[in-house]
Every structure is written in C-alpha cells, then in structure tokens.
Amino acid sequence: MEVLDPTHETEPIGGEAPARLDSMKGCTVGVISNGKEGAKVFFAHMEDVLRSEYGVAEVVQRVKQNYSAPAEAELMREAMGWDAVLSGVGD
After folding, report:
1. Which of 79, 48, 50 is nearest to 62 (CA)?
2. Where in the sequence is the domain holding 73, given as residue range(s)?
3. Which of 3, 43, 52, 77 has the fewest CB within 10 Å, making it most exposed?
4. In terms of Cα–Cα distance, which of 64, 56, 62 is closest to 84?
5. How far apart are CA 2 and CA 5, in angstroms?
6. Taking the complete model, does pTM exceed 0.85, yes or no?
7. 41 belongs to a structural domain
8. Residue at 85 is within a domain
C-alpha cells in the first residue's frame, strides 16, 4: 500500500494573525463564496444572522470567478478593507 502526503513540500511563509475583534457591531464583514448552489442559501442565512444577532453594519457578498481556484488578487485587495471575512464552499 502506498500512502500519499498531500501537503506542500515547503514551509509556508509565516505571519501573525490579526487581532480579534472585540465586537462585530458596526463592522463590515465580507463573504467570499465559491459560487456553488449550496453556498448561496447558507451565506444568505449567515448575512441575516450577522446583522440581527451580531449588529454587523454591512455584509459584502462576493463570488470567486473559479470555484476551484484561489480568490483573485483584486478580490483579496478588496477584502483588506473589510473588518472580517467569512469564506466557504457549498456543494
């Protein structure tokens, strides 16, 4: 039996995680979806929850151009202006 290791051969470039938000009230949360049908319903529900239960001021929903590829550079630059990001897939 041959077992394959799917991890990348090199070590990832290190960095520090950003500081956690004290509260989401009044924040802008970006949602990055892979665009599959299951993600649409889930993220629509999450937007309702973020606004009603956490006081999020704005939810920006974006869909990647290719569901199986990383988000585009332009989308990542836009995300830098958001207070938090929610990303996920739906099948």
Report:
1. 79
2. 28-79
3. 3
4. 56
5. 10
6. no
7. yes
8. no
Which among 90, 91, 89, 85 is positioned nearest to 31, based on CA atoms? 85
- Asked if 35 contacts 67 with a C-beta cutoff of 8 angstroms, the reply is yes
CB 90 within 8 A of CB 40: yes
Residue 64 lies in a domain: yes
Would you say 17 and 77 are in contact if contact means Cβ atoms under 8 Å apart? no
Name the nearest CA neighbour of 88 among 26, 46, 28: 46
Q: Within the chain, what is the greatest distance between any pair of CA atoms? A: 54
- Rounded Cα distance between 69 and 44, Å, is 22
Could you list the pLDDT tens digit for every one of the 91 residues in the chain?
A: 888 777 766 776 777 888 899 999 999 999 999 888 888 889 999 999 999 999 999 999 999 998 888 899 999 999 999 999 998 887 7
Domain count, the chain: 1
Amino acid of residue 1: M
